[in-house]
Amino acid sequence: MSTWNVEYLKPTLLQPVPSDIAISRAQPPKDIEKVAAEIGIHPDELDLYGRKKAKVSLDILDRLTEVRNGKYVVVAGITPTPLGEGKSTTTIGLVQALGAHLHKNVFACVRQPSQGPTFGIKGGAAGGGYSQVIPMEEFNLHLTGDIHAITAANNLLAAAIDARMFHESTQATEALFNRLAPKNKQGKGVRPLSEIQLRRLDRLGIPRVTDAEHLSEEQRVSFARLNIDPATITWNRVMDTNDRFLRKIEIGLGPNEKGHTRTTQFDITVASELMAILALTTSLADMQKRIARIVIGSDKTGNPVTADDIGVTDALTVLMRDTVRPNLMQTLEGTPVFVHAGPFANIAHGQSSILADKVALKLVGQDGFVITEAGFGADIGMEKFFNIKCRYSGLQPSAVVLVATVRALKMHGGGPAVVAGAPLKHEYLDENIPLVEGGCDSNLRKQIDNANKFGIPVVVCVNKFATDTDKELELVCSKAKSYGAFDAVVSEHWSQGGAGAVALAKSLVKATEGPAKEFKFLYDLELSLEEKIATIAKEIYGADGIELSAEAKEKLERYTRQGFSKLPICMAKTHLSLSSDPTKKGAPTGFTLPIRDVRASVGAGFIYPLVGEMTTMPGLNTRPCFYDITIDPVTEIIDGLF
Fold this sequence. Notes:
Among the domains are: 147-307, Domain 2, N(10)-formyltetrahydrofolate synthetase (2-Layer Sandwich), CATH 3.30.1510.10; 529-610, Formyltetrahydrofolate synthetase, domain 3 (Roll). It contains 24 helices and 24 strands. The strands form 7 sheets. Strands 1, 2, 3, 4, 5, 6, 13, 14, 15, 16, 17 and 18 form a 12-stranded mixed sheet that branches. It is an enzyme of class 6 (ligase). This is formate--tetrahydrofolate ligase.
């Protein structure tokens, strides 16, 4: 694979650094057809959504099947403050440095942001400063409609669940069977079954028939009645808006539902298992199989009920057909970006898609780089990247870039609490070597150690802020290398773009030279679910062990009995501490990790233990971002997005 001939963009760097949207608007992007042509995507492999974004065909994987993959790098971070430490910005800055300044073939693969935070408290999520994805408005709003497709598919399944329970509860078995398998009007009263209904016969151990009329009375009952236990239903409706009043609702209150009410809730769309499935699928056929395996609850005898049992597998796949194709955009300096999938980083794995990574790795070629990001700190996002995403993709990671900030290290070294929306205390604005040292000796050391457990090199990126002093930055770099990092580099990509990350890029190139390192998983899938959970708690978090609630024990036994014990683990834990207590900073020891509950995302392919309460539907604060978002009705220019 030859080096791309890319026309790199050269944004004008201003001081002080303007707002993100002002920077984005000041740099006209290339037409996406030009970006695609520069990196070897053929016109018939591109579906345009306007002039600045497009979907890319998976046929590229077949065309480039003989091309060796490029280097595969994950950007993770130390345990963050509530303000975040700049992983997305580092991802984009590093890619700009590798491409526009070192002239490497390079792709960024990032998650699509939810509309909820965009209009809520956080604002946009395209990176920041002079290291961001453009156009920012396109990135943060509808993009190509993937999230809307997931919303539609998710809610079709939710509607089908309640409709099925309603019809089973209001009809005799004979009437129910006659409606599920109606006689063919074209012929001799034959009752043909669809393929998805025949698959239900397979799961029930009933031989397939060409005419359901031949089923016995007992077989008809088994076929027609799912007997879903409402108390076990885990499938919720979703929408891509922060709405606290949908966290607990009662449905079925209309007179035509005949008193069949139940309590349920809405989640935000990116919390849907369908989003996690999109991120972990390897093809449309694989997505179809994963959707079929979704477990929505149990029947009244304790057996799992799946989306295939409900009968909606293929319908959901149809709604999500286009979502499997990655979305192509560009950085501020004209390097390519795939924006694809955006699962939660707590109840799911928090990564962009396997498919985007695979296509990008072929396009960059053997000497190129694909840089992707892991949500939250390395103890959560990086661990899931290795143990879940790399397991399902079969891809070999080449290196970890671990992002740290002096601000976060001061917090871990004993500094005062950092509160979103409140002014930083003087400890964070003035030089304070003891606090920095304390944070290095605790959290930074532990997260480097966590990364090294997987056998690949770690490059620490110290994301520089204006208040950091040379002494503080030198101390972090020195400490990081002494703890086992391959290298540690100060980076200024937020204020300088790719030029500010050249040293980081050169260090990464050096770290990935030579034979590939021996990557290894943290645990074997053959271990019991409890053993796998305990391994993560002890090895990654530093806990002495785990404590299972009665409910968690019952769920582990149920999932083992149902045949799900070989799945990997996706811990749902606070991202603000290595422990279960977000107030405990540094690297806590001498604690036991409490497992409150355990749930299964069988379609996505993981079991997720709950450590504490997890909110899957954010709420709006007193003054959400939408107060500042506006549009000029003449020019259609949007303002106020972050």
